Each structure stands twice: as structure tokens, then as C-alpha cells.
Amino acid sequence: IHLKDSMTLNIKNNKVYLIAEIGVNHNGILSLAKKLIKYAKKCGADAVKFQNFKAEKLVIRNAKKAPYQIKNTNNTETQYKMLKKLELKEKDYFLLKKYAQKLKIEFISSVFDEESIDFLNKKLKSKIIKIPSGEITNYLILKKLNVFKYKVLLSTGMSNYIDIVKAINIISKNKVYELRKGKVFIKNKKIYKKLRKNLYLLHAVTDYPLKDKYANLNCIGQFIKDFKLVTGYSDHTSGILASLISVAKGAKIIEKHFTLDKNMKGPDHSASLNPNEFEKMAESLRKFEIMCGSGKKKLQKCELENVKISRKSIVAKVLIKKSQKFTYKNLTTKRPGTGLNPFLIEKLINKTSKKRYFPDEQIKI
Question: What is the mean pLDDT of residues 101-123?
Fold first, then answer.
């Protein structure tokens, strides 16, 4: 299957980049995975994200499930058994990416080992690689990345600033950041300027679904201030409110789990949005972008007629005779705003009137 180079993560001005996190919600079924891509596109997503892993390389055979996984699957089987059923074949990724390209939606995937990086970058020709929260301390993966050749999304669930600074420095193969007394300092500005073009931070809190009290959305603004990188939010809460708030906090990327049916069997379905919910979130985010505008304060087109009605002009307060001087006692301001701007009243004071003005008549220069 011939694949073109992937599109690039395109974040412009106030537009939010919206990722439908399919993850393992395909339940290991190719047809379901394609259907999820189709619906994600219909619902307004800019990208779909999958996970590239082999169970035997990801987890030891007797590793227990996370509490949320047990709760969401009603099954105490090992992580290995659960993940084995959720694998996609290597050829499936080619088919899915080609299908995504056909629908003009970006195809992204997470990596969980070094071989996954080679597969996505060299074989699948992905230009965006996601490092999930569980891998932020995985030195082997971080060191293998080449952030100067493709874009990297770094998710920060279960981490602190020490972890994040270490991870970024390993990814960049330079000591770009330094943490001193809890504060972040840029140590290598030259590398930082290159790094910021391709590395994106995602605030995340790892639990499914995430309780509101743990969302900690103020981290987004703090990330932007401290790391000076494009920042997003990987949202694991129920509903869409947290995603909307995160954009108000400065998030430029939103990643949200996506499913066709929240009642399907699997670890992530119940914490995902269905198509109706995802579409509502996308519409709300686009409306938010429109409402935010350019940020430049100027007279809006819709205000032009209202200016004439709501603002005031300089008018005669009483009868003003020709050759009489203008004073604050014989001038005032009244609607409509079709005459002299009230800002000019000071310049009129003590000047001589060139004509007679009746009360309420607009003054002319």
C-alpha cells in the first residue's frame, strides 16, 4: 500500500487542533476502527489517534490491570490478556492510515517501545508521534526519538516537573531546561528555538473517567508560562466542559477518547465521548474560537450603525449667538453621534461661534 507523507500538526492562530482518541476502542477489529475514523471525521475531528503496541513488549505476563481497567471491563484478567485482544496487526495500520488520508483526517499513533517508533516513522511515514503518559519516564523510547525530524506530542499524566524536564532534555539530546527551586529555566536557547517547532506538551491526569476535582486545568497556563511550548490537554473527564475550559486556559490541542458506544466492552469506552457528544464538543470549540476573535480591540462591523445612535455629538445647550464665545455653560453633548466627537469640546472652548445655534443644534466647525 502506497502511503504519502503524513500531514503535519497544523495549529494556526486561535484554531484548536482536535484529536479523536480511538486508542483501543476498536476492540482489535479493523472494520470497527475504520468506522471510528469515519465518524470522527463527520464529528469535526482534525485527527484520529491509535496506539501501536504488541502486548508481549508492553507488559509482563502476570501484570495486574489498573483499577479503572478492572472497573470498566468487569474482568480481573491480566493486562497481557486484555491487551492481546486489543492489538491491531501491522498491515492494519497501513490500511487505517490510507483510509484516514482518503477522508482527509490526520492519522496519529502512540508508541510503547523503540520498534514502534521505527515502524511509525520509517514504514508508516508518520510525521507525528505521541508519547503517552505511561512512557514519559521510558528512557529508551525518549532517547530514540528525533524531535527535529517529526513532531512529538508528550503527554504528562502521572508526572511532575522533574519528570517533564528530564523527558524533554532526553528527547532534545540537550539540557534545554533546568529546574531550580521549582522554577523552570531555559538553558539552551538555540536548541529551544528548534525544539518549540516540533514538541507539544499535553496536560493530562491519568484516570478513566477522571473526577472533576483532579483535573487541575490551571496546569495548562503554567505549562505555557514555564516551558513556552504549544500546550494542549488530553481530557479524561466525563463530558466536554473540561475541554472547553482548557481552551480558555490556552490549550491549542484537545485529545478526547472517542467511541461509537460507551456501553461496549473495553477499558476506555465508558470514559469516551460518543459521536453526538464529540460533535457537540467540536461545535462548541469552533464557536469558542469565533467568539475569541483576533484580540485586537477595534470597531466591529456590526457596531457601525450603533455608533451613530448610541454615541453623542456636541450640541448647543442654550441659544448661542453669532460671534459669541463657546463655553462649558452653552455647550453640551447629546445623541445621535453624527456630529462633532465630544472629545473635541475642549478645543471649542473660548472660540467664537461663526453662526447662531439654537438649543440641541449640532455644532459645526
Answer: 97
- What is the DSSP secondary-structure string of 224-258? HHHH-S-EEEEE-BSSSHHHHHHHHTT--EEEEEB
**Cβ proximity of 162 and 181 under 8 Å:** no
The set of cell numbers assigned to 118 is 521505527
User: Distances from the Cα of 289 to the Cαs of 13, 121, 189, 194, 286, in angstroms?
Assistant: 10, 32, 31, 28, 5
pLDDT at 75 over 90: no
Say which residue the cell 438649543 belongs to: 359
Residue 237: predicted pLDDT: 96
Is residue 154 scored above 60 in pLDDT?
yes
Nearest CA to 133 among 155, 161, 162? 155
For the record, the C-alpha cell of 213 comes out as 476535582
Mapped onto helix, strand or coil, the DSSP state of residue 330 is coil
Rounded distance, CA 137 to CA 142, Å? 8
pLDDT tens per residue, range 219-235: 999 999 999 999 999 99
CA distances (Å), origin 273, targets 20, 170, 234, 288, 323: 9, 34, 13, 19, 76
CA gap 90, 122 in Å, rounded: 13
The whole-number pLDDT of residue 12 equals: 60
362 or 266: which leads in pLDDT: 362
pLDDT score recorded for residue 293: 87
Start-to-end CA distance of the chain, whole Å, equals 77
Task: For residue 212, give the C-alpha cell.
Answer: 472533576
Q: At what angle do helices 241-248 and 275-292 cross, to 10 degrees?
A: 20
Do 165 and 187 touch, CB atoms closer than 8 A? Answer: no
| Among the listed residues 64, 60, 18, the one whose alpha carbon sits nearest the alpha carbon of residue 42 | 18
Nearest CA to 130 out of 122, 140, 141 is that of: 141
DSSP assigned state of 123? I
Confidence of residue 363 (pLDDT cuts 50, 70, 90): very high
